[in-house]
Amino acid sequence: MPASTRLPGKSALFVSALLGTVIFTSCASVPQTRSKALPPSTGNTLNQAAPAVESGGGSQKADAAPVPQTRPQLIKKAAMTVIVNSVDPSIDAVTKIINNKQGDLIGLNEYQPTKENARHTASITLRIPQNQLDSTLNELAKLGTVENRNITAEDVSNQLVDVQARLTNLRKTEANLQKIMDRSGSVRDVLSVAQELSNVRQSIEQIDAQLKNLQNQVAYSTITLNLEAAVSSSSQGRGLGSQIQETWNNSSHSVGEFSVGLLKLGIWLMVYSPYLLILAAAIYGLNRWRRNSQPVRPTPPAENYE
Questions:
Q1: CB of 83 within 8 A of CB of 149?
Q2: CA distance 169 to 207
Q3: Is 200 exposed, middle or buried (0-12, 13-18, 19+ CB in 10 A)?
Q4: 117's torsion region: left (phi>0), alpha (psi -120 to 50) or beta?
Q5: Is Transmembrane helix given among the entry's keywords (predicted)?
Q6: Cα angle 183, 185, 191; round to 5
Q7: What is the CA radius of gyration of the chain?
Q8: What is the side-by-side strand order in the sheet with 74-84?
């Protein structure tokens, strides 16, 4: 059969075989990517060192390269509660500290006291570079009296290695699929490879975003700072104007409630007025009947004293 003749069945079979080879290669290359933490010559050095141990030679052990120790990748979070004299100036001081440490203010929740014996509090969430965590906590502790302090760390070294390995393998798969797509001749084969290439690129974008998120959490630490006023608010500490305003508001509210009460009473009386009139007429009739039913006493004759 001439070489220029194309058989659809063989072309599809060829593309399927290439896709299977690419997927098998990407799956099989995961352990190889994880083994990059060891030097390339470690395996050969161990193989060469075995005969030397059996023969009693100790010079080969000294030549073996040590396994490099990588620094753990930690996500650090801290929480602190500080008792301060006044919350508002302390918030301004915290803002200055964040700017000096090149950090960011994520959230601020301030709670003004609405009742007596309630404290003015504020909750601040901020992010700073991880290498500035300890110094930032020390400066925040100077704002007042530290009530509690907590630091947690999570090691994500293995997660970073896995994500990087998956990303590397997917990029290799993308390159292989691109080569297959360039060599495919029929439209059906091109569309099949293009669909698979689109799926791989979507996975690359997702894993790349996950990797950047982990790296960002490692690079920046989160601090949750709670500020509490040392002295609770009371009516004695308020000014004369605020007290007069509160008295006026209370009296106005009382007059309004009294007026509404009188209006409601008038409505009730209006609704029940027919029954009240009947009751009043009954009482009036009963009184008249009692007066009429009483016997009339005769008037005694006047005595003549002549």
A1: no
A2: 11
A3: buried
A4: left
A5: yes
A6: 95
A7: 46
A8: 104-111, 121-129, 220-229, 74-84, 145-155
Query: Is the separation of the CB atoms in 192 and 15 below 8 Å?
Result: yes
Q: Per residue in 89-102, is it b (16+ CB within 10 Å) or e — as a string? A: ebbebbeebbeebe
Say how many CA atoms lie within 13 Å of 223 toward its Cβ. 30
pTM equals: 0.51
d(CA 272, CA 280): 12
- Side chain identity, residue 76: K
C-alpha distance across the termini of the chain, in Å: 178
Residue in the block written with tokens 């004293």: 305
> Do the beta carbons of residue 106 and residue 127 sit within 8 Å?
yes
* Predicted confidence pLDDT, tens digits, the chain (306 residues): 333 334 344 445 455 555 555 555 554 444 443 333 333 333 343 344 333 434 444 444 445 555 556 778 899 999 999 999 888 899 999 999 999 989 999 999 988 877 767 788 999 999 999 999 999 999 999 999 999 999 999 999 899 999 999 999 999 998 988 888 777 667 787 888 888 888 999 999 999 999 999 999 999 999 999 999 887 655 445 556 666 777 887 788 788 888 888 888 889 888 888 888 898 888 888 888 887 877 656 666 655 544
Tokens in use for 251?
A: 């009296």
**Residue 143: phi, psi to the nearest 5?**
-70, -25
Structure tokens given for 117:
């014996």
Relative to beta strand 145-155, strand 220-229 is: unpaired
| Helix intervals (H) in the chain | 8-28, 30-34, 42-55, 59-63, 87-100, 133-141, 157-183, 187-219, 240-271, 273-293
User: What would the two tokens of residue 97 be?
Assistant: 């500290």
